[in-house]
Amino acid sequence: MVSAGCKESSPPPTTPPTAPARAARQPPAEPGTWYRARLAYDGVGELPFFLHVPPVGQNGRAYVVNGDETADFQAEWRDNEITITGPWAYTSMIEAQLRPGNKNLEGTWTRDTPLWGAVVRNFLAVPVPAADPHKEGKGRFEQGPDGVVRGYIKPGMLGDVRFLAGNLQPSGGGAKLGLSTFNGNAANLVLADVAADGNSMSGIMSLQNVWNERFTAKRSDDFTLANKVHLKEGKTTVTLRGFDKYKGKPTMAIIFATWCSSCNDAYPFFRQLYATYHAQGLEMFGVAYDLNDDEKINNTQLEAFRVKHQITWEQIQVPCTPETWAQAMPPEIEGWDGLPIVLLIKPDGTVPVVFGGWLGPATGADGERLRQWLEEQIKELVGSAGAKTKG
């Protein structure tokens, strides 16, 4: 991930951008799950890579993406255990177990070599929507008079890692930066080495010690993040469960999850928009993906979310799991890497605006610009629909 600090950022684009060029280099989609995997190297760090495995119970091809290369392996499931074997003269094998609570794969990689004998390293893999090794992000930090460094990181359009605080300590010719935040839900850590000139840094960002992402960063005063979520080429409408009753009305549809921090950040503003523009004809509709196929649990979570945010518009759940999440999402949407996703839908069903991610309360002026931009889009949606004030 490349992150950059900047002073200003432009409002999100109102027209969907083209898909990143790197997407064309990835292997064709196959049934199964993508994982962000890593091997633990004692005393050195971690070796990260993206791994695709077939669905549980289905044996066959697994593969790893290394930049422009695809390396093939053979996968064999036994209940919730998987063995992934490489096509080499000497043993190269990943043996791992699927953890039911978080769907992670945990185990070991073993490589037999005539020179070093058996090399065994710990293996961990976390499910992700797709292999995307080259992410851009943005960070903004400021050191106050008290010496405390405060700020946030926005890893792509996937919300923000917010209310980070810590210190900067001299180290060699440069400095070491340590930032953290903990609120019972988020437990995030950023550690980085800052260059002597203060214009670059490198380090690791750890979210709950589950998503551990190494990064390099360069200072920039004009870095902006593009909104990568968009409709597929040639598509103008979206297949959204439960949306039929809103046809003919200007509607803001929100794809979210109750566990999503960015979604929780966004909902107070969504409630404000609804209070202002519902009388002018705007409808809101929420579709939750809580990554559980137990509808009773889903509905309990959704009701608690509704009460917490005082929501009066309709919300539904789409039962799914981490393995089926991508397949359960509207097939016309691509480029997404997280939630929420906002769709502004005209009465004729066309979708002029798709926006993914959010900027939470720690992002200051950046978040304010996003809120102003979205409200302008709502005004245009309601105005173009010719909606009449309800009497």
Give a written overview of the molecule.
This protein has 391 residues and is mainly β. The protein folds into 3 domains: 2-19 and 133-219; 27-128, Quinohemoprotein amine dehydrogenase alpha subunit, domain 2 (Lipocalin, Beta Barrel), CATH 2.40.128; 230-385, 3-Layer(aba) Sandwich (Glutaredoxin), CATH 3.40.30. The chain is built from 4 helices and 23 strands. Strand 2 (33-41) and strand 3 form a beta hairpin. The longest helix has 21 residues, at 365-385.
Condensed summary:
This protein has 391 residues and is mainly beta.
List keywords for this structure.
391 residues; eight-stranded antiparallel β-barrel; disordered N terminus; Lipocalin; Glutaredoxin; globular; 15% helix; disordered C terminus; mainly beta; 23 strands
Strand order of the largest sheet: 1-10-11-12-13-14-15-16
- β content, as a range? 35-45%
Quaternary structure state of the chains depicted? single chain
Point out poorly predicted stretches: 1-27, 387-391
Continuous helix count = 4
Shape: globular
DSSP E strands, number: 23
* Name given to the CATH homologous superfamily of the largest domain: Glutaredoxin
CATH architecture of the largest domain: 3-Layer(aba) Sandwich
Backbone CA Rg: 23 Å
- Give the count of structural domains: 3
